[in-house]
Write a structure and sequence with these properties.
Elements (H helix, E strand, L loop, with lengths): L1 E9 L5 H12 L8 E8 L5 H4 L2 E9 L2 H7 L3 H9 L4 E10 L3
Antiparallel strand pairs: 1-3, 1-4, 2-3
């Protein structure tokens, strides 16, 4: 299996309503994108505010294998989400790694 971790940093144009909409889009990936074993997403509520650095939305996706992760990027559901970030995103951090037994 492979883990895909993403954190999103938005600019000041994002509204709380838009952030909730994005969260619901992320949660809809499971069941619509093949190869997803598990998925969680949420709004950052850390009390470690010194470490938050403006990242307010997080995503964790577990894929069946690396090929499923590769197919995820160009999938139309994922691409629709990526397009919805236009004009509101400042930065994204992505970490992918194999799940060790």
């Amino acid at each position: 299996m492979f883990e895909h971790l993403v954190t999103f940093k938005f600019n000041n144009k994002i509204t709380p309503q838009k952030q909730q909409e994005l969260l619901h889009l992320l949660l809809s990936f499971k069941g619509h994108i093949p190869g997803i074993v598990d998925l969680t997403a949420g709004i950052n509520v850390t009390e470690e505010t010194d470490n938050q650095q403006g990242y307010t939305l997080g995503l964790r996706v577990t894929f069946e294998n690396q090929e499923a992760l590769r197919q995820y990027g160009p999938h139309p559901v994922h691409q629709q989400f990526v397009q919805s970030l236009d004009g509101i995103i400042d930065n994204v951090i992505v970490v992918d790694y194999p799940v060790l037994p």
